[in-house]
Amino acid sequence: MAGRTEYEAGVAVADVLPAFADAFPFESFNRMQAEALPAIVERDDNVVISAPTASGKTALAEAAISRTLDAGGTALFLAPLRALTNEKEAEWDRFEALGYSVYVVTGERDLNPRRAEGADILVMTPEKADSATRKHDSPRYAFVTDVDCCVIDEVHLLDSDRRGAVLEVTISRLRRLCGPRIVALSATMRNVGDVAGWLDAPEACTFRFGEEYRPVPLSATVETYTHGDNAFADKYRRLYRALDLAQPHVEDGGQALVFVASRQDTVRAAEKARDVIAERDVEIGSRGEYDFHTDAQELKNDTLRQSVVDGVGFHHAGLSKEDKDRVEDWFKSGEIQLLFSTSTLAWGVNLPARCVVIRDTKLHDPLEGEVDMSPLDILQMLGRAGRPGYDDAGYAHVVCDGADADRYRQLLADGKPIESRLAGELDSHLNAEIALGVVDDIEDVMGWLETTFYYARAASAPEQYDDAESLRERVSATLERLVDGGFVDQSGFDIEPTQLGRLTSQFYLRLDTAASFHALCERAAADDAPAIDESAILRTVADAAAFDSVSARRDERETFGAVLGAEGDELEPGNRKVLAILRAGMSGTTPAELQSDAWVIRQNGLRFLAALRAFCERFGSPQDANLVRRIEARVEHGISAEAVGLVAIGGVGSGRASKLAAAGLVDPTDVRRVGVEGLVDAGLSAGVAERVVEQAMDLPDVTVEWEGIPESIASGENAMAEVTVRNEGDGTPVGIRVTVNGIEMSETTRYLGETTVPVGVFGGDAEELTYEVTVSFSELPLRPVSDSRVVDVE
């Protein structure tokens, strides 16, 4: 670290950042923080810092933010989990007390552009930042181009299979958009220099703090168990091994944090652990404390309520926020000594323990089947061992099968270099940059490549990646595939996105999934093709590439016949499982055998249905888009095809829709007809009924009027008539299609208030002419409105 100006350990916050001393929860900086502070507060360069867990990196993030605010700038903090963004919002009321505003950017619906634009500190996950930067040229998201400093918490997330590429391209895009200062923080990583090279951080601003900076020394081991033939029994073998490792620390008054694979596992392991601890007569928890027992009765989760009084708890994302907060507080204060959690806790809340045990190194992913827990997660979890100020040492253990032991021992000994995950998703991310207009010619493509961590890491480790020339050839080949697939148009050196490319980027689709959606719309639009139907839509979604790794157990496959009959026989078992879950979700009766993965698969299915609807609007027809929208609403709410229109009414979900349907009210028209009194008779309270009727009055109320249409016409003669479609409710996009004897005469898309369409009446060979007008709602799950007239040919 030669050449750097250093502060002494223990330097006061007030001496370094006098205007922000009250924003820090302590009065002085520790040794690690003091060594990095000059780079943070005295220079404008980008900074990369790798340091052990619990060594105080958050304070350096806050120092960087303080310096930005002091200069009148805007800071963006990228947190790895949404739970952590909420935590920062609560913690950083210290900045708000100094007159600075903090705004957490969450979902599209909740976004307040005025608050975001006026915020001094923005907090997002990488996914939200990706979304915001993709929409930077819209007024709602223009604020993201005014960022002066971006702090990346846990930058080693770059190596995450699913999320790493998102973080990588988002940072590259943000640097191209507004060139903010980047301060990247990470747990210990071997190749800090590669990340620094990517971010153009000079040597004086690149730090790799070793284990000697860990506030509590860590002892980490790999422990094996006797593997059996039954996976369920193996879980308990690993649990007993984990409890053996944790027990001495618990008996000594310390705490143990045990990581398991799933939410359900946290509950089951806690239940079993209580029995084992009782059998072993281990003293644990605060059984005699009356106030704690009284507070425990306020927990919403019944099982948790019974467990915590024995000193054993569990923590997962499915618990209410109130229950999670109480568990965290009780673990910090010692009322809970043994806590079971999923890996997400290691990335989120700062909750260290004297002993950390990883019971499960494999987990079930609804979309991937059984997978190994990522090395990043393993290291992140182990880093939670040791409570600064309480423990003299931390103890961390990985419990695994003997066949995997050497692999984990090497991981603990050597750590893991951070790799780029962009190569596996290069085509979709390059398409996104072209769709955004960030890349618009061949030279730009290569320029974009050079801004990525992929390029920087390849230069450092060409034996694992391609050399620079090969990378350029690979990107050129990727661009060629985008052009051949219709995602990009190329004219000479200039490139621009097609509508297909834009939609693919907008909905974050893989190219092969987008191509299958496009093909379905193209087939439906062909003159001699049958109309798109419900089964074709569901099969296309279930066959999306994102579902290709879904596995189907024997008991799950045995439910397919009852749910699907012969539908989807051509699909692979995993994709057919997706189809069964979507089909069952439409009726609200998912078989028990399919429920464990149903929520995740349905959420992904809903995302794909929303994308397919947009594809139908652009490449198909409003009728197709409306059908997809009704299927989407049925999957989400579990409502019948007849009554699906009810969920278009604000405040009406599956429960109220089912209640109204049981009373014979199946659409907004019925609701408007019977009014408040009729809804009360159907079982709604008067207050709810009033709100539902008010919402229903705002929905489209379509009437059709024919003018000049004759009852008959002589053969060989013709006449002109017209049909007027009028909407008495709020305007909405609709498709208006006019057919004669099933053959399309005209189709138009309108934002409907009132519109008139000409109709030609031609006496031909047919004995009668049936004219039909159909009004379809592409954005609402309302059934189409149809009306017809018959003209005799004499």
Strand order of the largest sheet: 3-4-2-5-6-1-7
Q: How many helices does DSSP assign?
A: 32
**Secondary-structure class:** alpha/beta
Low-pLDDT segments, ≥5 res = none
In short:
44% of the residues lie in helices and 18% in strands.
Summarize the structure in words:
It is a single chain. This protein has 794 residues and is α/β, with parallel strands linked by helices. A seven-stranded parallel sheet has the order 3-4-2-5-6-1-7, with helices on both faces. A six-stranded parallel sheet has the order 8-15-12-9-11-10, sandwiched between helices. The longest helix is centred in the C-terminal third of the chain and has 25 residues, at 595-619. It is globular.
Protein traits:
single chain, 794 residues, alpha/beta, 7-stranded parallel β-sheet
Outline the fold blueprint:
Layout: H1 13-16, H2 31-41, E1 47-50, H3 57-70, E2 75-78, H4 82-91, H5 93-96, E3 102-104, H6 113-118, E4 121-124, H7 126-134, E5 149-152, H8 164-178, E6 181-186, H9 192-199, E7 206-208, E8 218-225, H10 231-251, E9 256-259, H11 263-280, H12 290-296, H13 302-308, E10 312-315, H14 321-333, E11 338-341, H15 344-347, E12 355-358, E13 362-365, E14 369-372, H16 375-382, E15 394-401, H17 405-414, H18 426-435, H19 442-450, H20 453-460, H21 468-484, E16 488-491, E17 494-497, H22 499-506, H23 511-525, H24 534-542, H25 554-557, H26 560-564, H27 573-587, H28 595-619, H29 622-637, H30 654-662, H31 668-681, H32 686-698, E18 702-707, E19 712-713, E20 718-727, E21 732-740, E22 743-752, E23 754-762, E24 768-777, E25 785-793
Parallel strand pairs: 1-6, 1-7, 2-4, 2-5, 3-4, 5-6, 8-15, 9-11, 9-12, 10-11, 12-15, 19-25
Antiparallel strand pairs: 13-14, 16-17, 18-20, 20-23, 21-22, 21-24, 24-25
Helix pairs in contact: 2-3, 7-8, 9-20, 18-21, 18-22, 22-28, 23-24, 23-28, 24-27, 27-28, 27-29, 28-29, 31-32
